[in-house]
Specification:
The chain has 408 residues and is α/β, with parallel strands linked by helices. The chain is 25% helix and 25% strand.
Length: 408
């Protein structure tokens, strides 16, 4: 049954001055709030290795932000911003990034009403020679409000990944209220980012340094990765008062067979770095259900966790995915998720969460509330009263799930 949740119950006053517009000079020098069992403590992020349960497993999202925002111009002079969301032709990220000469993507189109369907040229105010030689063009294939399918064509033997590197900019969050700057090319990206595809960073990972990662390994904590490509939907506020009316956008994810085997057999705490890792890991149960009931994996629907009571254990669900992959000679699960995690959600895998401080009235606040048993205000009141910095470039928190007690 879909829970009845009013988003205005998840409102708090976030002054503009508390939004971190730029990262701190050192990634791991941010503040860290630790929450367990209603108790809040304050640390510095570089302290985190000693605060984690020993011999646990820590899972990161290794997605990489692509410079997916490009500025085009009509012959009339009107500027059109095109923000690539997901590939259409070729349909897979890796093949689309490798495409030469042309490809098409689903895009958000800024100033869409002024684009009458004519072919656009890339705006090149700096008269960069390489940009001019590439001669990137954009054609509108179809439009649906502010989004549409755009075909890109360019000269030369450049793969589309290189086209974006030359012609695009990193799409920093709109709430920073500034243009992308040189510092964002490095700092709006995790150190361990590998697989291109996100239009927003999994920001909990922005605090990790080599020093911190080494400290985590020295504590006997196993590190592994998933990949969920973060979509533009992460920036969308919940506009309807009733959360049940808010649509979650599909985000593709991948989990290795090796990690699935570890998750099935895990006896220790599972620590997720970021809400994207949580959503990936918790989606696995429902993918497993589809393997049990339908014989194959399927995407996770938004409200699947609340539809009914499921009779399967977490081990049974994960084992069903493993069996499907092994039977089909596959080494990786690829699926998509629209899962929404709200109060009342039953967590089946994740025990501890590393995450930043999120916007009021957002789906991420709902996830935090679900994770800490509704006690999100204790966490956010403390952060507001003790000068924590908020949102993507802000400070961090280490949250222990409310229904478990984990020693160190």
């Amino acid at each position: 049954m879909i829970p009845i949740i009013h988003i205005d119950d998840y409102k708090y006053d976030l002054p503009e001055g508390r939004i971190a517009k730029y990262p701190l000079p050192e990634r791991d020098s941010s503040k860290l709030l630790r929450y367990e069992g209603g108790k809040v403590e304050e640390y510095v992020f570089k302290d985190i290795p000693g605060l984690l349960p020993k011999d646990s497993m820590m899972v990161f999202n290794e997605t990489k932000v692509v410079p997916a925002r490009m500025h085009f111009q009509r012959e009339s002079g009107a500027h059109i911003e095109i923000f690539c969301l997901e590939p259409i032709d070729p349909p897979e990220y890796n093949t689309s990034f490798a495409a030469v000469g042309k490809c098409s993507w689903k895009c958000v189109i800024g100033n869409a009403k002024k684009w009458k369907g004519d072919v656009l040229s890339l705006s090149n105010p700096e008269n960069d020679v390489s940009v001019s030689q590439m001669d990137l063009k954009a054609s509108l294939i179809e439009r649906d409000g502010q989004t549409g399918t755009v075909e890109f064509r360019w000269n030369g033997d450049y793969p589309f990944s290189r086209v974006l590197e030359i012609c695009g900019t990193i799409p920093i969050p709109p709430y920073l209220n500034r243009d992308t700057e040189a510092i964002d090319l490095e700092r709006y990206q995790t150190l361990y980012a590998k697989i291109r595809g996100s239009v927003a960073a999994p920001t909990a990972g922005l605090h990790f340094t080599t020093r911190v990662l080494d400290g985590i390994k020295d504590r006997g904590i196993e590190i592994d990765n998933v990949c969920l490509h973060v979509g533009a939907g992460t920036f969308l506020p919940v506009k309807s008062r009733d959360v049940s009316e808010h649509p979650m956008h599909r985000e593709p994810f991948a989990v290795s067979l090796d990690l699935l085997r570890k998750l099935r057999d895990k006896k220790t705490s599972l620590i997720a770095v970021g809400t994207t890792s949580v959503r990936t890991l918790e989606s696995l149960y429902y993918v497993g259900v589809s393997c049990i009931e339908d014989g194959c994996p399927s995407d996770v629907r938004q409200w699947a966790p609340y539809d009914r009571d499921y009779p399967y254990s977490t081990e049974e669900a994960i084992d069903a995915i493993i069996k499907y992959l092994e039977d089909n000679g596959m080494t990786e699960l690829r699926a998509g998720t629209r899962i929404i995690i709200v109060p009342g959600f039953k967590f089946r895998l994740v025990d501890v969460l590393v995450t930043n401080f999120h916007q009021p009235e957002s789906t991420l606040i709902l996830l935090i509330s679900a994770f800490v048993g509704g006690d999100w205000k204790t966490i956010y009141d403390y952060a507001l009263q003790h000068d924590f910095r908020f949102l993507s470039y802000g400070d961090s928190s280490l949250l222990f799930r409310s229904d478990i007690a984990i020693g160190s």
